[in-house]
Amino acid sequence: MDTLSALRLQIEWGADEALDDAPINRLAAPPPTPALPRPMPARSTPRLAPAALAQAVAEGANTIEALRQALASFTACPLAATATNLVFADGNPAAGLVVVGEVPGAEEDVSGRPFHGPAGQLLDRMFASVGLSRADMLLTSLVPWRPPGGRPPTDSEVQTCAPFLWRHLTLLRPRLIVAAGTLPARLLTGRADTIRRLRGRWVQVAVPGLPAPIPALPMFSPSLLLATPACKGQAWADLIALKRALVAL
Fold first, then answer.
1. How far is residue 207's CA from residue 177's CA, in Å, rounded to a whole number?
2. pTM summary value
3. Does some domain include residue 150?
4. CA–CA dist 133, 25 (Å, integer)
5. In angstroms, rounded to a whole number, what is the distance separating the alpha carbons of residues 106 and 117?
6. How many distinct structural domains can be found in the chain?
7. Each residue of 207-248: pLDDT tens digit?
8. Measured distance CA(214)–CA(185) in Å, rounded
9. Does 200 fall in a domain?
10. DSSP the chain
11. 13: burial class by Cβ within 10 Å (0-12, 13-18, 19+)?
12. Which of 79, 81, 123, 137 has the smallest set of CB atoms within 10 Å of its CB?
């Protein structure tokens, strides 16, 4: 019987499916399923702490304008989201004298200029008494955003803002620095004393990226002088010391 005839016969007998050449042992254990390759977990980029991120962003600014723009777009400090304006700088960047304040007040927050309002007016009168104007200095702040409600900045906020001030000083290359208030005085001197202990004493400040230390003089902030007029005598002595140092340059 040929193959075709055998197939017809099987159909007539009711065969409706094909069988293997060898019998299947259905009681045997099924063959093991091959293991699929496990997907590799996605590598996440480690997130930098705000201060470390600020350091990286600040170091990437090679001009003062680039630094201002970097600060304007920096969001890792929570103060940037609550302040009205960035308070970056005012005055003459080429003057050689930099005055560093603490934090912006309400007037500075609105105007975007450091040492504005009553405290700024007092500062202008103080420097005018020794023949200096804003054209003779560059004014800036350690913290460039006003904290909500005028509260003091936290240690974390100060540490996040500090790299931008250091980079600002590097780009300005000043000949003298005035630290007007406790926060900038502590940062520049590396000491945790109050401004009453720090004021009136010149210190040599090593600014990253500059070849030689910069003389810096801690002084009372104009805001403290408004609240404590009895300190104005000491502030006058500091202004005289500053004037002498400028004349000796």
1. 11
2. 0.81
3. yes
4. 102
5. 8
6. 1
7. 999 999 999 999 999 999 999 999 999 999 999 999 999 999
8. 13
9. yes
10. --HHHHHHHHHHTT--S---SS---TTSPPPPPPPPPPPPPPPPPPPPPHHHHHHHHHHT--SHHHHHHHHHT--SSTHHHH-SS---EEE-TTSSEEEEES---HHHHHH--SS-HHHHHHHHHHHHTTT--GGG-EEEESS-SPPGGGPPPPHHHHHHHHHHHHHHHHHH--SEEEEESHHHHHHHH-----HHHHTT--EEE--TT-SS-EEEEEE--HHHHHH-GGGHHHHHHHHHHHHHHHHH-
11. exposed
12. 81
Residue 106: inside a domain, yes or no? Answer: yes
Domain housing 180: 50-248
Question: Is 26 a member of any domain?
Answer: no
In the predicted model, is pLDDT for residue 42 greater than 60? Answer: no
Give the per-residue pLDDT at 103. 97
User: Which residue type occupies 54?
Assistant: A
